[in-house]
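Contributing new complexes? Match this layout with (S)-3-Hydroxyhexanoyl-CoA.
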Amino acid sequence: MNEPVTLTISGSIAIINVNNPPVNALSHSVRRGLVECFAKASQDNRIEAIVLYCSGRTYIAGADITEFGKPMKQPSLPQVISIVDSIEKPIITAIHGTALGGGCEVALTCHYRIADKNARLGLPEVHLGLLPGAGGTQRLPRLVGIEKALDLIVSGRKVKLPEALAIKLIDRVFEGDIVKAGIDFANEIISKKLPIRRISTAAVEQPEAAMEYIEQYRRISTKKHRGLEAPMACISAIEATINLPFNEGMRVERKQFLQCMESTQSAAQQHMFFAQRQAANINDLDKATPVRAINKVAIIGAGTMGIGIALNFSNANIPVMLLELNEEILTNGLDSISQYYQTQVAKGRLSEQKAKQLCSLITGTLSYNELNDVDLVIEAVFESMNVKQQVFSQLDQVCKQGCILASNTSTLDIDEIAAATKRPQEVIGLHFFSPAHVMKLLEVVRGDKTANDVLATAMSLASEINKIGVVSGVCDGFIGNRMLKGYGREAGALLLEGAKPEQIDRVMVDFGMAMGPITMSDLAGLDVGYRVRQERRKRGEFVSNYDGAISDRLVEDGRLGQKSLKGYYRYQENSRTPLPDDHVHKLINQIATELGYEQRVISDEEIVKRLIYPLINEGAQILDEAIAQRASDINTVWVFGYGFPVHKGGPMFYADTIGLENILHDLKQLQIKYGDIWQPAPLLQKMALEGKKFCDL
Ligand code: 3H9
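Output block (do not edit by hand):
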């Protein structure tokens, strides 16, 4: 096997190269190689300066996350860095791609940093529930000041070149050959006798009243990063630079790092790092499956969803034809697209010219005949099988051969929709989440007859439009909405049993959800569910009290949610803040009495179990039916589509942390009390009895 770190000599300059694909992570062999090569270069009397650079697509992207949780092999990264820091020859590092985490910490230990114009640097450890653990929290404040270091380390954001130059994170930009650029700079340092610049010995630029500043920052962060441990650990480690010498600060950093590394939150976030990447792998699909070129897309329906979907493609520079049969709706849709781009300009996110160009990629039409040259159509019309089948039958007639026909349905049977065409192999579900241009998740629904290359194209397109694609089989609601049903049902049940809307929402927000279920219903509009329930009743289907008793009454009283300024809560004009409403409390109480529910005090702990355990139980069933390929895909759906807290790792990872045997026990208790809606899923029972975990599968 080739050594991942090599040393070559060019005159008086030692050149150290790291080559550890795909992202030059600091695996054990790289750490060992760095120590050996730096030692040789430092001991060689011919050498006057050292250049460090990487091969492949990026600079070192950080510690090797796959080694976390395994026994540490020496040398550790802090040891490597301490050795590099003690070298008495100028070290120049040349950066391309991304210098992240431990990679950025290596760069900070070098004395001079040059980078190509597309390079980005950052300490994103906080996104893994960690803090920089190889001196980043002690060196960065010494280089860029405490305020900037707090901003960068606590947010984990990546810095582009102009900012990196402005804050002196980078000394110079280079163009052309990376090795030549490094050698040229090294020669300049030698000839000008420029000094060794060790950040570890530099003074820290502090804000006035530094301790008060940190305290204030901590207070704000506690609110902003509610429940998260890593941002707080970052702040404590940076705080140590204020009045502790470098080496003592390093000890504080190490202690915080090891504590975070042992935490469930970090394990959950590391799980999600790999889960979202793993989702791209389709078990029974050859990786070499060809993908179709998607050069032009059509969207059917210019409602909120259709417009959001269209923006994904224009933002990725793919032309879009927006079809809508009603001229007024089409004009309004195109207007709101133009408004969206104007807002992007006003917020400084796009130049006027770029916004114009992207906006011009979306054109409107009233005629199906104009769709004859598109490569992909996404239907986003009213959620009715009849309507969707009519649309697909029409698409079948006008679209060219090879055009992929997709439906944005959130619940309906893709196979039934495909049956309305003569080409079911070209039909697939592409379920976007609202707001469609913002939410990261795309459920890719594989029909019975969907062709392999159609599926491969959809997954590759997901990443092209900056989404995380997760494959789901066909069932009512697919992965996400099927699980949501139990969650919504229990929110309704808890209200009838005595929990107040604001208690349920508070408990779920404290749990880490982006929003509580009741606020979510008000935001989505209560009339949406109302219409669905009316349809179901018309078809003679059973609608439980939990699903509709309260919500139906609110809608009939004209309380449609945020849009009518009243739903479960009251809202003031132009405000999204839910305000508790005594009228609703009384109404719920009255409905509960009418229906024979006894209202009682419900504990926060019970609310968590009643809402989250149905997700886990249904998730287990979805796994058993192979609707989802793996538990981590379910977690990805819930974290990126439904705001499940990333630091709990999605419902299936959360279940593992609680213990499946404990969950099984509680499900059985709930089944005794409430009946078979709580019947434990067979897979969950089996795994609990075998002492297994979902996310080890
Ligand atoms: C750290 O550094 C701690 C230190 O402070 C202290 C230590 C004591 N390790 O994302 P991609 C894999 S914490 C192992 O698809 P892209 C990834 O799983 C670390 N593997 O590519 C994938 O594998 P597969 C701080 C890693 O071009 C493949 O590489 N650093 C690592 O879209 C390609 O990845 C970070 O948090 C890793 N560090 O994006 C940076 N990174 O092909 C994490 C990636 O089998 N990495 N892989 O699915 C990233 O942000 C992106 O990967 C990067 C490239 C921007 C680099």
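Reviewers usually confirm one structural detail per submission. For this one: The first strand starts at residue 5 and ends at 10.
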